[in-house]
Design a protein that fits this description.
- The protein has about 240 residues and is mostly helical.
- The chain has a domain of about 160 residues: Rhomboid-like (Rhomboid-like fold, Up-down Bundle), CATH 1.20.1540.10.
- About 60% of the residues lie in helices and about 5% in strands.
- The protein has a two-stranded antiparallel sheet with strand order 1-2.
- The longest helix is centred in the first third of the chain and has 22 residues.
Length: about 240
């Protein structure tokens, strides 16, 4: 049987990488001369990130972006731009703070995305990714409604795929271990915890995992039915490793 190529997963990998590499460059031309290079990324994050205050009040704020330059916070001149808070909950899941943040998310996306898409199909995988990421942004915003720091990253969306994989393959011990950094608030290197400086929005991860589990259970069926529902054979006890 020919294995389905996970086109949606590959597209998401490419889109996240392209936004990280090319997105901030588009803001450079709008900044005054002499502004630190870090400001381009900070302004990009402010524009396309999901600010909890904006989401809960459905109103865009006019705030200067803040960049870390030489270990100190620098307020960057932020040009005026039109921002729709509801749309920012979507765009924020494709914005990442650093290369380590991006790579950590993409590694998990590659592992779980391919497996989930081959079992659930491309349309459902895309819907799961977007719905989990979107609800994760709003779920986090409700816990800190007056926070004005932009929320960025695909972790909420990827957490939904992790939940789907756990539901589809509960005997697989690898995925729960990969999900541990998404669930447990501990400090560590950015490639492991997913965001630099330990500034991790764990509630967004929890919301993504919860929504992903509920949607997968709804689409796939009861645990006793999920192997047949996704078109795969039931596992044989003698072949479990």
């Amino acid at each position: 049987m020919t294995r389905r190529i996970p086109l949606v997963t590959f597209a998401l990998l490419g889109l996240n990488a392209a936004v990280y590499l090319l997105g901030p460059r588009a803001t450079t031309r709008d900044l005054p001369a002499g502004v630190p290079a870090q400001c381009a990324r900070a302004v990009f994050d402010q524009r396309y990130g999901a600010v909890p205050w904006e989401l809960t009040h459905n109103q865009a704020l006019r705030l200067d972006a803040v960049a870390s330059v030489g270990g100190r916070a620098v307020h960057c001149p932020t040009p005026d731009f039109d921002k729709n808070p509801a749309v920012s909950a979507l765009t924020s899941m494709f914005v990442h703070a650093s290369a380590a943040h991006l790579i950590g998310n993409l590694v998990i996306l590659l592992v779980v995305g391919c497996a989930v898409e081959r079992r659930m199909g491309s349309a459902r995988t895309a819907a799961l990714y977007l719905v989990c990421g979107y609800t994760a942004a709003y779920g986090f915003a409700l816990t800190v409604p007056n926070d004005t720091s932009p929320l960025i990253g695909a972790s909420g969306a990827i957490a939904g795929l992790v939940a789907a994989h756990i539901w589809l393959r509960p005997r697989d011990p690898v995925i729960p271990l990969l999900a541990l950094p998404l669930l447990v608030p501990f400090s560590g290197p950015s490639w492991l915890v997913g965001q630099p400086g330990g500034n991790v929005a764990y509630m967004a991860h929890v919301v993504g995992l919860t929504v992903g589990l509920l949607l997968t259970a709804l689409w796939v069926g009861r645990p006793s039915e999920r192997e047949q529902s996704v078109g795969g054979p039931a596992p044989l006890p003698a072949r479990v490793t």
